[in-house]
C-alpha cells in the first residue's frame, strides 16, 4: 500500500487523529484538503455563525500554509451550509475577507441538514506551489 503524504497544521494533529482523518493529502501536484469547520482548538464549534465562518477559513488557511500554499493556490471549493437559504448570504458577506481577487476558484455550494454541530464547512483542492502545470 502506498503511504499517504499527509499535511497537518501546527497544533491540531491530535484533533485530526482523534477523529480518524487527515486534514490534507498531497497527490500528483495537488493538495486535497478535508472539510474545515469553525472549530476552536478543542474541536468545539464557534457559537456565532459569522465567527464560525471566519474560523473555518482560518483553519483552512492553516492547513494550506502547512503545505506551502495560499488561498490563491485554491482551484476548487466546496462549501456545505446548514440552512443554506438563510446562511449563504451571511457566509458570502465574509468571503471577501479571505477570497482575494478574481479570477476566483470554482465553487460548489451544498445545503445540508447536519454538520456535526457546525453550520458551515469548506473543503478545497489546491495546486501545490512546486507544480507548473496549467
Helix content: 25-40%
Q: What is the first-to-last residue Cα distance?
A: 30 Å
Number of helices: 4
Largest sheet at a glance?
6 strands, mixed
Low-confidence stretches: none
CATH fold naming: 60s Ribosomal Protein L30, Chain: A
CATH homology superfamily: RutC-like
Mean pLDDT score, rounded?
A: 92
Provide the structure class. alpha+beta
What overall geometry do the principal axes of the alpha carbons give? globular
Number of strands: 6
User: How many domains is the backbone divided into?
Assistant: 1
Rounded Rg: 15 Å
Strand adjacency order, main sheet? 1-2-3-6-4-5
Q: Summarize the helix and strand pattern as letters.
A: EHEEHEHHEE
Beta-sheet strand percentage? 25-35%
- At CATH level 2, the architecture is 2-Layer Sandwich
Return the CATH class. Alpha Beta
GO molecular function: deaminase activity
Protein name: Endoribonuclease L-PSP
Pfam families: Ribonuc_L-PSP
Q: Can you walk me through this structure?
A:
The chain is an alpha+beta fold and about 130 residues long. The chain has one domain: RutC-like (60s Ribosomal Protein L30, Chain: A), CATH 3.30.1330. The protein contains four helices and six strands; from the N terminus they run E-H-E-E-H-E-H-H-E-E. The longest helix is centred in the middle third of the chain and has 18 residues. About 25% of the residues are buried. The mean pLDDT is about 90.
